[in-house]
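Dissemination and training. As part of the outreach component of the grant, students in the summer workshop were shown how a complex can be specified as a set of sequence lines and then modelled as a single object. The example used during the hands-on session is reproduced here so that future cohorts can follow it. Participants entered these lines:
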Amino acid sequence: MSAPFPLDLPATTAVYLCLYVVTLALHVVFMSYSLGGACYLALAALRKGGTVSPCERTARGVLVDWLPFSLGLTITAGVGPLLFVQILYEKAFYTANLLLFYRWMMIVPVLIVGFYLLYLIKSDYAQARPWLWRGACIGAFLCFAFVAWSWTENHLLSTDPRAWPEMYEQRRVVYASPLLMPRLGMWFFGTWPVMAAAVAWQLRAAESRGQSVPDREFVRLGRVALIGLVFGGACALGYAMRAGGQVTAVLNKSSLWLHVSMLVLGVAAMLVVWIRCLTGKGRRPAIRPLIAGTLASILASGAIRESLRVEQVDMAALMSHHSRALQAGGHVVFGIAFLVNALVIAYALTLAAKAVRGTTKADEIATEES
Amino acid sequence: MVVAFGLFAWHRREVTAGALVLHMNGPTAYPIQDFGPVMKGMVIGGMGIVHVFLAQFAIGGGVLMSYFEWRSARHQDADARLFLDGFFKVLVLASFVLGAMTGVGMWLTSIQISPQTIGQMVATFHWVWAIEWTFFCVEVCCGYVFYRYGAKLGHPDRLRLLVLYSLASYGSLFWINGILSWQLTPGDWILSRSLWDGFFNPSFWPSLLFRTVACLATAGLGAAVVIDTMSLSRERRHTLLRSAIRFLTPMVLMPVLAIWYLWTMPEDSREWVLGGSPAMNLFFIAAVGASLLIALYAMVGLLYKRLYMNGATALLLLALAFGASAGGEFVREGARKPFSIRQVLYSNAIRPDAVARMRREGSVANDPYPLRDGESYPTKQLALGARVYRAQCSVCHTLSGANNVIELTKSWDLDQQRLNIAKLQHTKGFMPPFAGPPSELEALVQMLRWRAAHKPKHWPVSDDPAVMRDLQRMLDEATTLPGSLSQRRPPMGKR
Ligand code: HEM
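and obtained this result:
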């Protein structure tokens, strides 16, 4: 029996892999909120109806309110794995970027447009113009869906060196692979339960501050989460089937048993919480097991995703690069900067909490007076 | 920051010399991008300018806001508070969105232009980048907490958040500055390979201080634009404006800092900037001129004569500041030529110590990527020439557009072309040495002539052994060293 992935690999490679998987998981948390949330709003916008104010304590109101920040965090959190993926797979990652060329570079302007659309959705201007508001919701979702497609395509292309020369010669900037749709579907539906868990947590927090949230909001979120889990699972199955024996071979490796069990437990926790929420009387999901299950699933699936790639690329050649890179120095200062800055962020969050508490108190006083 | 500083001193001793020699794999390791008539430098420069300008605004903006917050409490200045909220909205919309995304855009563009360069930079400095990333996270979090909850917090908490925000955004400048200045002046790193030698390289401090002044000035001008849009009486706006304009005062230091910066530059780079390269000289003069205009207007008009600045003027000055940053960025990008990382990597992804080997073995022998217009070449030699051009020249030249190499060589006769390309690093010191055997050199020359002749269907193969011997002699005379290091020989054919 070997040590759990990535500890079964040489230490320096394992260091970079750990950092990559953890920072990517952080990216995926926020990315899911942004993509899943924009999809939720777009679906609501398609079904006609009025605009949604960021003050509304419903799932949609919370999303309108928080999506701009969440996208900011998605981008910020994306920089971490973007750094480590370059150390880990230098050549494969760069080559895929180069081949997709302007199609790839388009994620930059597209994200800028999507970002501003989110601010527009939140603005009084669009709130007063339902057609504009609906258009912006759908537009923002399309932007993020495009970006998700690009990352998946880039990932698949990076692991398929045989396709490189021909793509280059024929100036193709779209990489078609039978694996693309199931993989994208997996990510796409996978964002739903994550978003649902996060929004449910926000709504519960609002309730604990005395704001009232209708039952149907949690019911809707529960349905969305369950649909996402079922369809995401189906796509994962489709992916495994199309990829041939590759996926099952990796999943059977003893270095992955921990991750596979974590994934199974995490998904089970989500299923149980939501099913109980939908069938029980309280109509409120249990937030702690829900969040724990969600995070465990994200982390575990990230590690499994990575060990699949490690099987596909010529890791032996890269390992010496990793150990040389670690000698470049600076990791000690990084460790300190990381700790100090994490504390600073925690402090900023306490200030935010203080502000929220202050508002709650002010509200209470106001209600008492009236 | 203070902690980090102490650590450098300690950590410096730990780093073993010569630890990092990177695996670099020549220009043909990656598919080479083709931007048509646009020079690659223009692509990265264009993205860089926007990003740098926005970043300057964000960094200076943090300091400016901290100052106004302090003022609003100290002097019970309600207008300062009002301004602060308006300014912060602009900052969020400009810097959080555009600043962050153009930052990612810079990274992706660098990959498109030269994966080898960014690969070397990441391999050397990824921990520094990781440090910068933690600062970036603080910046976003503190900024957003202020944006969202600032109105509900008391003055001390607001000030704390703004100061943390400013420190974090200044921190990201501090860290990235070490990496960028290293590209031009790697200093002792070349021998010691010690991270901190590379980071605190000769141009680190002048570059950091210069950028600091630029940040403050940009924020001051941005603030002037915002102030003009506020619905306050002219008098009250004037009061605010006078506070904001103070942020332009450090510009008096710019001449000293610029001279210091130029002084730390390698001699050849300095020569390009001060006249050796007309284009670069022009950018330099534009940057200096624009900065001078802004500084003069601010000093004389606003601080001394106490004039009022309206929105249009402020916008105009902001545009000038943009021009100055643009000129500065182009100079910074251009002055490195022929290197993308001085003494480590030429712009065309060839390492200086690989030139001699490539003179023997060829530069495109192992190129896995076919030509995209392979069909159009009537002979193998011409196709080889096209590959050589793609690998060695296309990073700075085009075949039909900016810095068009066909145009540049059209008026020369065959011998001049052979000689000037064989001795490329002497023809113009900001080009790397030619890195291939005589056969590749001749193939390149023939390809350029064939294109200049509008691609005729038939073209003779040129493989006369006497010519090859001649070319070998020229290549030997040119040496494999960069123009700045090898003995300077005037290019005979041309002058
Ligand atoms: C709304 C915006 C975004 C969405 C929807 C999104 C979505 C995704 C998805 C679906 C993946 C997984 C790809 C796969 O495994 O098939 C991914 C990976 C990744 N994303 Fe994002 N992303 C977004 C923005 C960003 C940004 C701005 C950055 C960079 C700063 C970034 C950095 C990364 C990195 C480095 C990976 C790993 C790529 C790899 O290992 O091949 N993402 N993203």
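Chain B has two domains: 38-346, 376-486. Students were then asked to discuss how this feature might be tested experimentally.
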